[in-house]
Specification:
Length: 483
């Protein structure tokens, strides 16, 4: 960095940008991010938050800087800070907080125990999916048949993998999310003014204030509600069918559960009523799962007579955000050729990640679901010992995890957690470089390890130790963390 002029002068943004660390940041993150970092350096210097030498106030340098005296009793005048040293310290602090990539979103560790957390991006991608995205990030044969030198089917690799995963599906199609899949079905099959017959108990709110009936009615279709909130029968559907009936719809209430005096008509019974049956299974389970016996899956729904099944790609499937359409080949082709399908189509990176999820090794979500309880307990005890050795108020205790994200409502999995003081929550949530999200339960902050990959244990440990230091140093703390 070039000289900054008189001692104590706050250097300009251009002068600060001469620091090689900020030049490197400009190359990696873009000039705008680097300039904003330089401005933060200025604000830090103006606030006087950076010591001129990094030595404590009890040191000789500290005494001289503040007008202290030496052992001889001679009082020295206040020495202005060394601007070069001050800027270097400020740059180091700001650069340490820069993101690793040119995005304002940050990677976080999910220690909430909610395996598919919508606010945290739902299912984490496997390394195979990440590699596939990087592999196809440039130019690719997305819509080109290289052997025949002609236009090919878009995303044929992902579609072939989806067909292989659900053999009962005559046709498959992928759009950008499950809501889009339902909108496409309603638009293409019901058109303007035709009826969709659906149970009152399945007209759910799907999150962020969006409600299924409003979503479907936005297509111009009319809803014919049947049954009651808690009980609907095949006869309820049968009595509602008329000349304007486009299809029957069954929606899995994937973000809540009703118990007691309840009844839902079987798929086979609805499929026999002479109209196409569309089943929204929601969570994206393609085949039965031994740990989730009550969760509907695409293969079973189709084998029982559903004409179409819609599902999400970023929930129990463990892949990218996507809407999956599976079922009768003729109906799927009708959806694929509808003009709206063009507006809802997925990009090459989604298709790459989806294919890798379907063909590749077990997803991180599947690994988390099936992780043995004893292994989680051993990890929690090991992490607790390390933290307690550093003076942290930590304890290992049993916990309970859930699928979350609109999957397997009411189902819990035994887990293990590290319990900490609740006021560490905001310090961990704002940790640098990687925030850690946990949940508060009975006035303790629980780091549930079922949702934490093994390789992030070290990240969690360091974040907790830094947070404990900040807490002990009198930093402000709040309480609470959203699960």
């Amino acid at each position: 960095m070039r000289k900054t002029g008189a001692p104590g002068r706050i250097p300009s943004v251009r002068e600060i940008m001469d620091d090689p660390r900020l030049r490197d940041a400009a190359e990696a993150l873009g000039p705008a991010e680097a300039r904003e970092a330089a401005r933060r350096v200025q604000r830090s210097l103006q606030a006087g938050r950076i010591a001129d030498s990094g030595e404590g106030p009890g040191s000789r340098a500290g005494a001289e800087s503040s007008g202290g005296s030496t052992s001889s009793g001679t009082v020295h005048p206040t020495r202005p800070p060394d601007p070069l040293r001050t800027v270097a310290d400020a740059v180091a602090e700001v650069v340490a907080g820069l993101p690793p990539a040119p995005t304002r979103h940050r990677r976080v560790v999910n220690a909430t125990g909610v395996l598919v957390h919508t606010n945290l991006g739902r299912a984490p991608l496997s390394q195979a999916a990440v590699d596939a995205v990087a592999h196809l990030a440039g130019t690719s044969d997305l819509e080109l048949d290289l052997e025949q030198n002609r236009r090919g089917q878009r995303g044929r690799g992902a579609l072939d993998a989806l067909r292989a995963a659900v053999p009962a599906a005559g046709g498959v199609h992928v759009v950008n999310n499950n809501a889009a899949a339902l909108v496409l079905v309603a638009t293409a099959l019901a058109g303007t003014g035709r009826e969709i017959v659906v149970s009152r108990g399945e007209l759910v709110e799907i999150g962020d204030g969006f409600r299924l009936p409003e979503l479907l009615e936005s297509t111009g279709a009319r809803l014919r509600e049947v049954g009651t909130t808690n009980r609907t029968t095949v006869d309820d559907y049968a009595r509602a069918i008329g000349d304007d009936t486009a299809f029957l719809l069954q929606v899995h209430p994937s973000n809540f559960a009703m118990t007691g005096f309840v009844s839902t008509p079987p798929i086979a019974g609805l499929a026999a009523l002479g109209r196409p049956l569309v089943v929204d299974i929601g969570s994206g389970l393609l085949a039965p799962h031994p740990l989730l016996p009550d969760e509907p899956d695409a293969g079973t729904a189709l084998s029982q007579g559903a004409a179409l099944v819609t599902a999400s790609g970023d929930k129990l499937l463990g892949g990218p955000q996507a809407g999956l359409l599976l079922g009768d080949a003729g109906l799927v082709e009708r959806l694929r050729r509808h003009p709206l399908a063009r507006a809802l189509r997925t990009g090459k990176l989604t298709l790459a990640a989806l294919e890798a999820t379907l063909r590749g090794p077990a997803s991180p979500l599947e690994t988390a679901l099936t992780r043995p309880q004893a292994e989680l307990t051993a990890r929690a005890e090991s992490l607790t010992r390390r933290l307690r050795a550093a003076g942290v108020d930590a304890a290992s205790e049993p916990s309970a995890s859930v699928v979350g994200g609109g999957g397997a409502p009411g189902v819990t999995f035994p887990s293990a957690a590290v319990a900490l003081p609740a006021d560490l929550a905001p310090l961990l949530r704002t940790a640098v470089p990687v925030p850690v999200l946990a949940r508060v339960h009975k006035s303790r902050l629980l780091l549930d390890l079922r949702s934490v990959p093994d390789e992030d244990d070290e990240v969690v440990a360091r974040a907790v130790l830094r947070a404990w230091e900040r807490r002990s140093g009198g930093g402000e703390c709040g309480t609470g963390a959203a699960r």
